[in-house]
Amino acid sequence: xxxxxxxxxxxxxxxxxxxxxxxxxxxxxxxxxxxxxxxxxxxxxxxxxxxxxxxxxxxxxxxxxxxxxxxxxxxxxxxxxxxxxxxxxxxxxxxxxxxxxxxxxxxxxxxxxxxxxxxxxxxxxxxxxxxxxxxxxxxxxxxxxxxxxxxxxxxxxxxxxxxxxxxxxxxxxxxxxxxxxxxxxxxxxxxxxxxxxxxxxxxxxxxxxxxxxxxxxxxxxxxxxxxxxxxxxxxxxxxxxxxxxxxxxxxxxxxxxxxxxxxxxxxxxxxx
Amino acid sequence: xxxxxxxxxxxxxxxxxxxxxxxxxxxxxxxxxxxxxxxxxxxxxxxxxxxxxxxxxxxxxxxxxxxxxxxxxxxxxxxxxxxxxxxxxxxxxxxxxxxxxxxxxxxxxxxxxxxxxxxxxxxxxxxxxxxxxxxxxxxxxxxxxxxxxxxxxxxxxxxxxxxxxxxxxxxxxxxxxxxxxxxxxxxxxxxxxxxxxxxxxxxx
Lengths: 272, 204
Fold this sequence. Notes:
Number of helices of chain B: 10
Largest interface: A-B, 35 and 34 residues
Number of strands of chain B: 0
Strand content of chain A: 15-25%
CATH superfamily of chain A: Oxidoreductase, molybdopterin-binding domain
Number of domains of chain A: 1
Cofactor (chain B): heme b; FMN
Oligomer: heterodimer
CATH topology of chain A: Sulfite Oxidase, Chain A, domain 2
GO biological process, one term (chain B): protein repair
Distance between the termini of chain A: 36 Å
Helix content of chain B: over 70%
Order of helices and strands of chain A: EHHEEHEEHEEHEEEEHEEH
Order of helices and strands of chain B: HHHHHHHHHH
Shape of chain A: globular
Membrane topology (chain B): Multi-pass membrane protein
CATH class of chain A: Alpha Beta
Helix content of chain A: 10-25%
Domain Ferric oxidoreductase (chain B): 49-161
Radius of gyration of chain B: 19 Å
GO molecular function, one term (chain B): FMN binding
Number of strands of chain A: 13
């Protein structure tokens, strides 16, 4: 990991205490490296996040291929965001990155573009979870946002955390962070961003459409079929069993004031 | 005198079984209470206890096939193994109710009434409770022939527990399927043994 210079971002949450670095980097889901939360840290050593390019294309006036060095050389901000996993645990992570909207503005989306589709890298030789006996997900991992969600100032492409470039296990070299959505929307190790007029397929929605919706907004009122989403276990409080009890999950993960307007008039029980 | 000695050593082995059997629970409780069970200790503890409940349940189902296939008779230890399965299921449920959900009755009620995955677990636990409660000599004498019928419900408990385990992860895992296959094989053995031996049907 290399140190990154970043300005504190004005959109960081107030009064959030970041989860310890050790937990952020050693307890997470990244199925390309395995199913256990400890797999990404243990099994991502062979992954090469450089050289790397991100292709931005589709319904844009100026399609471009960005080199990772160009992305790292941009004006970077630190954003301290809540992260709520669909499995009902949560963290607070000090990301470093830049607003996705700034990148999209450079490629000039056409008026016909309505959605943004994202695609992860496929490298079975470096990502042991992409092999395996049982098919877990269809690779590449794909995700998508509505264009207005992608253009929202809270939506960032992260290239680092805790003041350094992203560790392999957290989605190096560049990943999406959408703090009001469940963590699985934050697609990692992105190689392609495509603007389109059709709602993109998303990996978990394809896998289990009744459990994971396209929107995947954090919503304590809409349960996962197998567990309640009303509360969450904060990770990294220390103290073992008695360190931290569950805390209530906030609508839009606490970002409702900024983003609820995006969904005005929608039935969020149906479009979950 | 030989019989008495054998009886005493069986008693010691049973005691040792309980002692060793409870080691995973004690170890993971101590680790969890002292913050050495990883980033999400409650979840890890809960899953560990559930997994051992299923393991002991499977072990208890292995004893008859082992006797029939190899002649090794461990039937005198089956009650201890079955009771370990019950105790682990009780610990697993308690960890979920107390440590994980913090006695949040609203959520717990919604869980046991609406989620098939939880309902399966509860069915398995209810059956194991009934079996544990009737695992003493008095109940065996009292129930007579009905005791055997009651304790056949362990098969249903094993099926529910295995499916509960498979559904407890976001994706189907090789590990959970293997446990499911072992349960299926152990039950298939019983079905095969119970099937009346008939002469092959003549060709039509």
